[in-house]
Structure formats: structure tokens, C-alpha cells
């Protein structure tokens, strides 16, 4: 999909013909931003989305496609937009009943309202001629996608740096995840860093805030991870999945506060492999999901056990999970990444935003109140990256949610990764795909790795026979 601002004339080349989409002039481009109440706001602006006909669109009426695939606006809105010429096919006006054909270019110009993001600055941990190491704030997406364009790491950095600066992110962080990121100043530098990460010559450590009392000592989870639905982009532990390993070590445990049912733990996490949502899935399987995870700690989706120790799907079948997610607003034809962002957006909107009763004077879109800062984050933070040969290391401070509660004594800094690396080495060679198990330390057992025969029970990783010592 290609998107362009209203302020320009964009031309597209397609087989056997030239297509042009013409949109009116925007007075100010890029749109101005305002910092207010701890949030970064982008003034609403006009934007044109351009998408070539997808296979599933062939032979369907234009209005039917918009009704089924773009459900953030009403059917009447789309009909009015088509009549007004805000929806074009191959640069020309068509009616709602137009039947879309292979090769058609569908353009939709709309008044775009980007959600506000935190106004926390993008911290710079290190900078040289090739690379910038940043501390990404939570709630800010890296790339333009979905409802976000200018409230993204890339566009914020471009706006803050003159002379046509173009950032090239080297490692991925989800929108809600904060922490250490590498942003290259050139394509060559980005490719070089990406190769190091892929070849596992770079170690990385995260910190998470999880439900309950995570066991003391080292926990090495080797459970394989399977994508149970490509359309959903959802993953869970499955024996038939891809090899995955994460090393965990508890940093602190805090008892329940007044009015709270459960205490929580701050856990260090070293992913050895790089599966999608790997840390979140492994923590869920171990019975200690990230405390505010809208997906993997959601009882509406997983039931009361939250997928704990359910490697076979006997407790919660994949079909049931998919069905529950579908009822939360997923469109059957939506693509995985777009739907995941949409689903999190809708979840946040239900929890954090309320209709103000007002509507935009330009497009009549209902206006929402601002989300609270606590709704703009996932309690998972990229804490440290280091070269395996010890040539460099970059670390960020602990996020506020990982610090001890007021009046409670606890760790405020984290040491190096030597203990995690040693635990991973003692765990031995990674199992082949489909042969995973859990390696863990018994509580107060001095951190000795132990193989667990079968899944952990009652949300606690139990110790078993010693692991090759």
C-alpha cells in the first residue's frame, strides 16, 4: 500500500496505463504538533491511502469491500465519500456499486486523526558516525502504520534533525514496548547491525513486570513457539512449533499492595532466539504473564488459566482462542500486523478513551478523550544490548514501573548479563524444533538449572533432576 499527503500530486505506474491520484492542497505540511498534558498531538490532516486490488476483492462491489474491511467508519460515511469523490478507482469517481477488478487502484482520501502518544523524549544513549542508540518511549510505534504516521519514532527523529536526515531502525520493538533501539544513519550501517543480530553475535536483555511470585534462580524456557493463525499474528507454545529459548532471572518480588489481589515480580529476560512475542508467550506459559499485557494476560481470550502450561491446547483450544479474538472485533480478511495494531487500539480505546459527545467539524468523526499515560505502555522494556565479544554494550535505566514501590526497598539498577549467559550455556544445545522442554531453578536452590519433566503446575516452575551437572 502507498500513502501520500494531500499536498502533492502523486503518480503511479501500472501495466499498460498510467494512473494518477490528484488531491487538494494542504495549507501546512507536515501538520504541526503540540505538546500538551504529557502527550504529543498531531493536528488532524488530510491523507490519501492507495491500494491495488487484492485477490479477495475481485468481483466485489466497492461499498461491500469498505464495509467489511474498513470498519472504523460507518457505511453512510463511505457512501458519502464515494459520492463526493474522496474514494476513487484509477483516479476516477465511481459509484458505491462499482465492481472492483484485478489491477484497479483504489484511493481513499480522509481527514486523519492520529492518536496522541507520550511526550516523553526519545533519549539518546550513544551516537557516532554510523549509529544512534536510543531509549524508545513506550506507546510510540517505530514505523508509520495503521492510525500512526507522524507520531512514530522515524518521523519524530526526522523532524528533530535537519538536512534531510533519514533514520533506519535495526531492531524491532512493538509500539507498546520501550527501551534500547539501534537507529542507523545509512542503509549499509543498518544492514550490518541487522546481520549481527540475526547471527546471534549480539546479546539482548529485557525486563518485564509479571503476575505473581516468579521463582528464584534461573529459569530457561525451551518451549517451541507456533503461530496458530497467520491472519491473527498470534503465537503460543506448541510442540510442533519453532525452536525458542528464553533465559529468565527474577530481579525482585513485591507483595500485593492494599486493594490488590496479587503481587508482582520484576524479571530479567534474555531471548536467545527471536520468535515473535517470544518473551510474552514464554512468560504466559510459565504462569506469569506480563501484568498489563492486553493479549497474553487477557482472561476473555485464554480463560482463567491464561494458557498456563498448555502446550497441547487441551485447556484452551486454538479454535476457541481465535473465536474469542474474532468476537473482539477482528475482521476475517484483515492482515496480521494491521489487525494486531487495530485490536490493541480498540482495547485501549475501550479502557482508556471515552466518547466526548463531540465530532470533528471537518469529517464528523466522533472525538475521544485522551488515553491515560498508564494505558500507553506494555510492562516489557528492552534494557540492554551487548556484543558477545565484549567490544561494546549499551543499557538504559530501569523504567519507572520496574522500580520499587514507594516506601519499599528493592533494586534500582541491574548488573551485567554474565549470570544469564552462564545459565544459557549450562542449559546446553538448543533442542530441535518440536523437542522443547523447560529448564528451571528450584526456589532458593542457588540458581542451579534443573530439567522439569512436563509443564509447570499451579503457575510455579518446579525443580526436577539436575541438568547435566
UniProtKB/TrEMBL annotation:
<keyword id="KW-0413">Isomerase</keyword>
<dbReference type="GO" id="GO:0009982">
    <property type="term" value="F:pseudouridine synthase activity"/>
</dbReference>
<dbReference type="InterPro" id="IPR020103">
    <property type="entry name" value="PsdUridine_synth_cat_dom_sf"/>
</dbReference>
<dbReference type="InterPro" id="IPR006145">
    <property type="entry name" value="PsdUridine_synth_RsuA/RluA"/>
</dbReference>
<feature type="domain" description="Pseudouridine synthase RsuA/RluA-like">
    <location>
        <begin position="130"/>
        <end position="284"/>
    </location>
</feature>
<feature type="region of interest" description="Disordered">
    <location>
        <begin position="425"/>
        <end position="469"/>
    </location>
</feature>
<feature type="active site">
    <location>
        <position position="174"/>
    </location>
</feature>
<dbReference type="InterPro" id="IPR006224">
    <property type="entry name" value="PsdUridine_synth_RluA-like_CS"/>
</dbReference>
<comment type="function">
    <text>Responsible for synthesis of pseudouridine from uracil.</text>
</comment>
<dbReference type="InterPro" id="IPR006225">
    <property type="entry name" value="PsdUridine_synth_RluC/D"/>
</dbReference>
<dbReference type="Pfam" id="PF00849">
    <property type="entry name" value="PseudoU_synth_2"/>
</dbReference>
<protein>
    <recommendedName>
        <fullName>Pseudouridine synthase</fullName>
        <ecNumber>5.4.99.-</ecNumber>
    </recommendedName>
</protein>
<comment type="similarity">
    <text>Belongs to the pseudouridine synthase RluA family.</text>
</comment>
<keyword id="KW-0694">RNA-binding</keyword>
<dbReference type="InterPro" id="IPR050188">
    <property type="entry name" value="RluA_PseudoU_synthase"/>
</dbReference>
<dbReference type="GO" id="GO:0000455">
    <property type="term" value="P:enzyme-directed rRNA pseudouridine synthesis"/>
</dbReference>
<dbReference type="GO" id="GO:0003723">
    <property type="term" value="F:RNA binding"/>
</dbReference>
